[in-house]
Every structure is written in structure tokens, then in C-alpha cells.
Structure to design on (259 residues):
């Protein structure tokens, strides 16, 4: 995916990305109150699918390279790409990342958040808060003329200073009509390295931050990625566009969009 050219979107296309992104944010807001002990990850999946269809959209994950469900649900030591399952029941103290990608009018809105099931342990709370701050710092590094390496550098510096590690095996990605395209956005790296950011580039930033080792393993189902040491992992994701003077987050709920 990284030898493709980086496409610059027109304002008409960015508007479609904004609508898809806002729908994705609304979907997470809709699912959030369901995140409680006793709910299965399949319950979350099925409600996401129903809501997505009711809003005239399609679930991009469903059937994507054979992925069997409509959303990804990644609990505790699962880093990403957890598959919803009726037998997997949320329990008090879990952390769960829900990753949604509705396609609206041909364009993808890709966003995820990590939620607490009841009260988290102090360590789980810290990991989740640091991960969200990693995403926010990564977004702040985006402006025309900055480089892709600047994003990873600020994320890695903050995560490691807080005693955590950055997953290497999965990266942010260009997204538009295509789910995963150029550029790749590593969440680690070196300031001043990598391609220059230009207005109209649209991509995700989606740091996965681990309590222990950054190394991951993929389960026999070929999807579920988990930490090698089985310690916790958290993730947050937004789809963003590089603007003339900085950055716009496309996956915000309409009520939160100020400009
Ligand atoms: N939404 C994920 C991402 O952030 C991709 C999920 S692909 C799937 O890129 F096939 F696992 F759904
Ligand atoms: Co993504
Ligand atoms: Co995603």
C-alpha cells in the first residue's frame, strides 16, 4: 500500500469524507452506552450493523479480506482486529477498543476509541489516557510542510516517557474511497524523516500503545492481534485531513465540530 501515490483530495471529496467521518463518530457515541458488564461483543457488532444500515451506510470491515464481522472489538491484551463473538462477554474492569468504519456515499470514516467496562484499574486508566493523548499529540504534529516522521516521533516520545511501548506491526493509513492506501503512518519514528505533508492528504492516526512489550502475535483466526506478553494494549483512532494551515479531524461528532 505504500508504493501507491499519495492522492490529494478535492474539497468536494473532503466534504464526503467529513460526512462519513461524522457518521463514524456518531456510531461510536451510539455504542458507548452499551459498553457494560454482561454485553457480548456480538451484541455490539449487531447493533453497529443495524445502525449503520439504518443510516444508509455500509460496514467496511464486513468481508474486507475475509474479515467476518462489521466492527473490530479488541479487549485487554488484544491489540487490534478482535472479532466480535457471542461467547465473549464484557466484564467489570475490562478495557475494549471499538473500531468502526462506515462507508457513506463511497467514502470511509475510520475511527476507534478504547472504553472502560465499569471501573478500570489505575494502570489500565493510565494506559488508556496516555494512548488518547498520543493520538492528540500526533494530530497536533500535522501541518503542511511537516513530515510523516514527526507524527510518529511525538507519539513514541510521549508513550515511552510514560513507561509504555508503541506497536510497530500496524500503522495509520491513507483512506478515502479505498479503506487502506498510501501513505503509511507509523506511530514511532524520527522527526524530519519521511514524506512531506501537503494540504488535501487524508489519513488515519491510530496509535496502539502497550503496557509491556511492543511485540504482537496474531492468533490462529488470522486476525486477532494480541500482545506477546499478554499485558494490556489500548488504541484511539481518528481520520484527519491536512489543511492549508494545519489539520482538521474528520471523525468528530457534528455537535463537536466548531469551525
Ligand atoms: N478499522 C481498522 C483500521 O483502523 C481496520 C480493520 S480491517 C478489518 O484500519 F478487516 F479488520 F476490519
Ligand atoms: Co484505520
Ligand atoms: Co479503524
Amino acid at each position: 500500500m505504500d508504493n501507491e501515490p499519495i492522492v490529494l483530495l478535492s474539497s468536494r471529496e473532503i466534504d464526503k469524507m467529513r460526512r462519513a467521518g461524522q457518521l463514524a463518530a456518531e456510531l461510536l457515541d451510539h455504542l458507548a452506552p452499551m459498553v457494560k458488564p454482561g454485553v457480548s461483543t456480538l451484541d455490539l457488532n449487531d447493533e453497529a450493523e443495524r445502525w449503520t444500515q439504518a443510516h444508509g451506510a455500509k460496514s467496511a470491515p464486513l468481508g474486507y479480506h475475509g474479515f467476518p464481522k462489521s466492527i473490530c472489538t479488541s479487549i485487554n491484551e488484544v491489540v487490534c482486529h478482535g472479532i466480535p463473538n457471542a461467547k465473549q462477554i464484557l466484564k467489570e474492569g475490562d478495557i475494549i477498543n471499538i473500531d468502526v468504519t462506515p462507508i457513506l456515499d463511497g467514502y470511509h470514516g475510520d475511527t476507534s476509541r478504547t472504553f472502560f467496562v465499569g471501573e478500570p484499574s489505575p494502570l489500565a486508566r493510565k494506559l488508556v489516557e496516555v494512548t488518547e493523548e498520543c493520538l492528540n499529540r500526533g494530530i497536533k504534529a500535522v501541518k503542511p510542510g511537516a513530515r510523516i516522521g514527526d507524527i510518529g516521533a511525538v507519539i513514541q516520545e510521549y508513550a515511552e516517557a510514560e513507561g509504555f511501548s508503541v506497536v510497530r506491526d500496524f500503522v495509520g493509513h491513507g483512506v478515502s474511497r479505498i479503506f487502506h492506501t498510501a501513505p503509511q503512518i507509523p506511530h514511532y519514528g524520527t522527526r524530519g524523516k519521511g514524506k512531506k505533508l501537503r494540504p488535501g492528504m487524508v489519513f488515519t492516526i491510530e496509535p496502539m500503545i502497550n503496557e509491556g512489550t511492543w511485540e504482537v502475535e496474531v492468533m490462529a483466526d488470522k486476525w486477532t492481534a494480541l500482545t506477546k506478553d499478554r499485558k494490556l494494549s489500548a488504541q484511539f483512532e481518528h481520520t484527519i485531513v491536512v489543511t492549508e494551515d494545519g489539520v482538521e479531524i474528520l471523525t468528530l461528532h457534528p455537535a463537536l465540530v466548531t469551525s
About this structure: Residues 11-31 form the longest helix (21 residues). The pocket of cobalt (II) ion (ligand 3) is lined by residues 99, 101, 110, 112, 206, 237 (CB under 6 Å). The mean pLDDT is 97. The chain has four helices and 17 strands.
